[in-house]
Design brief:
The complex is a heterodimer of chains A (143) and B (516). Chain A is mostly helical. Chain A is built from 5 helices and 3 strands, in the order αβααββαα. In chain A, a hairpin with a 7-residue loop joins strand 2 and strand 3. The two termini of chain A are 38 Å apart. The model of chain A has no long low-confidence stretch (mean pLDDT 80). Chain B is an alpha/beta fold and 516 residues long. Chain B folds into 4 domains: 101 residues, no CATH class; 100 residues, no CATH class; 110 residues, no CATH class; 185 residues, no CATH class. Chain B is 47% helix and 17% strand. Chain B has 19 helices and 17 strands. Chain B is elongated, with a radius of gyration of 45 Å. The chains are: A mainly alpha (143), B alpha/beta (516). Chains A and B meet through helix 3 of A and helix 2, helix 3 and helix 4 of B.
């Protein structure tokens, strides 16, 4: 009987643990997703750019793990009217799609800039409070 | 070596290896299925394909090669990300996602022959996959159908012809009812899948060949080893013979039949060419056996060609000299010599292996003439080897009452002159000591006289009523009555004969006439 109790307990603990991991992962992906869109718009805002170059920049920014994620994103942004593209002849191979920001895209980007400032402030403030607490009351932790 | 395909991806033409192509197809199908629920699926997939084409282009120019391999496809997929990676960035409800996915990937099971697990042609294994029963039970059932008038055999052959072989990985996955996804792809071990598709007959012989190879391999190897050993032994013997014939190792072979047919001046070229003609097939046999039994490596084409050329180079002089020597047997000549014998009532005829050495012989064996004079020396050379039997004896009735022995020397030659000369070169002797006549078993030839079918026909003429004791050994030289029919009268190796009006008769068969 003890064995069964232990087993049930074990399973329960494991499930709780898995839930926590999933929540963490979910939050991470949500955060990444939002930031990814913002970054893509930022990169494109500097001038017309080819998908591969966007990927290279995102990679150097350590934001994008796999390229395949970018294409649906670009298509969605284009369909929402934030982006458009031009076909430009390439020296090697077939013509390439070069993405540019539309007027709508630019205004959205400005809004996002504002949002990012707010978010950054929110996070910084939250962090600062947390840091202050842990720094000012070190005894609390030991108690 | 791998089969390659040409594909058009993102409007560029790419050479791609077959396995890489299959992997890429599976990947792109997955991607398509993933984005199928998206409104802009076509555009997204096109973008991805374009990007893949670009990556291939970069890889090929970077590595300076022409064909995309499976490793390139793997690294492209790694870079592009699998469908799982895409899922994490999707916004839709994951539960719904899963349902659509499972519908999309509902595996299709198809009937193929599984040649990977085949006993014969993979029919049973394929059926086993299809009906999801362990292959063993299918095989057992098949085995029992053999006893229903052999219906199983016919059914098996029909199924063999009708069911296609699972050749590609996709087909193999379909056969097992696995999802045609990259995950399913990974489940199939990377075996060499590129097998040339063959017709039924070719495959049948393959199967028979494999069966023989599998069961009889040990026997096969043993036989091959025996062949190699025998051929090597033959090769060594040939080599020793060549050395002996060339006179490098003095064995006096040139004076033995059949080597004494060959003219002295033809000897060395003929020996070399005969050696080549004999040895090269043996070498080829050894090489072939070694290849068949121990390695699958093909014999070098150049080597076999060189062997063939050398062999032909050996055959040509061989034929030349053989025709030349054959022409020396064209004409025949003979001459006779009659000697009278001292009369006796009873003669004893026997073969004498002891003989006086002739002048040539004594010189050949470097025997001092002083030492052997008046003495008989027993030859230990088995003369049978020196030439085919060349002494024949007839016993005939003498009409005149005189007792005589005629020797008829015969030989062949290029023309009558040489034939006669060859006949004159024959040395033959018999020796009469009172009533005992000793015949030499062989014709003697002068040293370095070539064998040209020399022989001597002896005809002994005795009057009616003369008794003859003929030794067993001489019986072999006797023409006319069969010596062995008179076996009853033999004592101490002699049989008794008598000359009658009808010719020579066994003494036991003619006593009635004797008393008359």
């Amino acid at each position: 009987m003890y064995f069964i109790q232990y087993y049930v307990l074990h399973i329960t603990i494991r499930n709780i643990y898995l839930c926590i991991i999933m929540i963490a992962e979910n939050t991470q992906t949500q955060m990444r997703k939002g930031i990814l869109e913002y970054c893509v718009l930022l990169i494109i805002s500097r001038g017309q750019i080819y998908a591969s170059d966007i990927i290279a920049e995102l990679k150097s920014a350590r934001l994008l793990v796999v390229e395949g994620t970018l294409y649906p994103l670009l298509t969605r942004l284009k369909n929402n009217g934030l982006l458009s593209y031009n076909w430009i002849e390439s020296t090697s191979g077939p013509p390439r799609k070069y993405y540019v920001l539309t007027e709508e895209g630019r205004s959205i980007l400005n809004q996002l800039d504002g949002t990012w400032q707010e978010l950054a402030y929110a996070i910084n403030t939250s962090k600062k409070v947390a840091d202050d607490q842990s720094n000012n009351n070190p005894i609390n932790l030991t108690k | 070596m791998k089969k390659t395909l040409n594909i058009n991806i993102g409007n560029s033409i790419i050479h791609i290896e077959e396995d890489a192509y299959e992997m890429l197809t599976v990947y792109l199908n997955e991607v398509k299925q993933h984005f199928a629920k998206n409104a802009d699926d076509f555009e997204i997939v096109t973008d991805i394909e374009n990007r893949i084409a670009e990556m291939f282009g970069e890889m090929l120019s970077e590595q300076q090669k022409q064909v995309v391999s499976i490793f390139d496809v793997q690294s492209v997929i790694r870079q592009m990300g699998s469908v799982k990676d895409f899922e994490s960035s999707e916004e839709e409800n994951p539960a719904e996602d899963y349902r659509t996915q499972s519908q999309a990937f509902n595996p299709v099971k198809k009937l193929y022959r599984d040649t990977d697990q085949a006993m014969i042609a993979g029919v049973c294994a394929g059926l086993g996959h299809y009906v999801a029963i362990d292959i063993r039970w299918i095989r057992l059932i098949t085995f029992f159908t053999l006893f229903i008038g052999g219906a199983g055999v016919l059914a098996y052959i029909i199924l063999w012809i009708m069911i296609p072989k699972a050749e590609t990985k996709t087909e193999k996955m379909n056969m097992r009812g696995q999802e045609t996804t990259l995950r399913g792809f990974a489940n199939i071990h990377l075996d060499p899948l590129v097998q040339q598709s063959k017709g039924f007959l070719a495959e049948f012989f393959d199967v028979v060949g494999n069966f023989v190879k599998g069961t009889g391999k040990a026997i096969f190897k043993t036989i091959a080893l025996l062949i190699i050993a025998a051929a090597s032994f033959g090769l060594i013997s040939l080599f020793i013979t060549l050395i002996a014939l060339m006179g490098i190792w003095d064995a006096d072979v040139a004076n033995y039949f059949p080597f004494n047919i060959i003219n002295q001046e033809y000897f060395n070229p003929l020996a070399v060419s005969a050696f080549l003609v004999g040895a090269i097939p043996l070498i080829a046999l050894i090489l072939f056996s070694v290849r068949v039994a121990f390695s699958s490596r093909d014999i070098n084409k150049t080597l076999s060609f060189v062997l063939l050329v050398i062999w032909l180079a050996g055959v040509a002089p061989l034929i030349f000299y053989i025709t030349k020597i054959s022409s020396e047997f064209k004409e025949g000549a003979e001459f006779s010599q009659v000697s009278e014998l001292k009369p006796y009532q009873t003669y004893t005829l026997t073969v004498d292996r002891t003989r006086f050495f002739s002048r040539e012989d004594s010189m050949r064996y470097s025997i001092d003439a002083e030492n052997y004079r008046g003495r008989k020396i027993l030859t230990d050379i088995d003369d049978e080897f020196k030439a085919p039997r060349n002494v024949r004896l007839w016993i005939e009735k003498s009409e005149s009452g005189k007792i005589s022995l005629s020797q008829n020397f015969k030989s062949r030659g290029r023309n009558f002159q040489t034939a006669l000369k060859n006949a004159q070169n024959i040395h033959y002797d018999f020796l009469q000591t009172d009533s005992l006549i000793n015949f030499n078993p062989m014709v003697q030839l002068n040293k370095d006289t070539r064998w040209r079918g020399q022989e001597v026909e002896l005809t002994m003429k005795v009057p009616v009523g003369t008794f003859l004791n003929i030794s067993e050994e001489l019986g072999r030289y006797l023409n006319g009555p069969n010596y062995w029919d008179c076996g009853h009268g033999s004592h101490q190796g002699f049989t008794e004969w008598v000359m009658t009006e009808d010719g020579v008769k066994c003494r036991h068969e003619a006593p009635v006439k004797d008393t008359d």
